[in-house]
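Hey, quick one: can you model this chain's 3D structure?
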Amino acid sequence: MKQFTQSLEGMPLLVKLILALPMLDIIWSIYRIVSALDKKDVVALIISIVLLFIPVTWIFDIVMVLLTGNVWKMA
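Sure thing. Here's the predicted structure for all 75 residues.
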């Protein structure tokens, strides 16, 4: 699981932005779930699963990628 999260974190900014677009944002949702599982953080896992079903998360992901270089994750 660490390899999956590290590979997404190591991607260029443009690729991260493309993956944050609607319909492709599922990748970042899976990233948040895998990251929470990797850290064994139950609260982050629950929040990640809830964020999976919120349809406007992609807007927040684009803003976070532009500001910090990575999507928001709790874990």
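One thing worth noting: The chain is about 70% helix and 0% strand.
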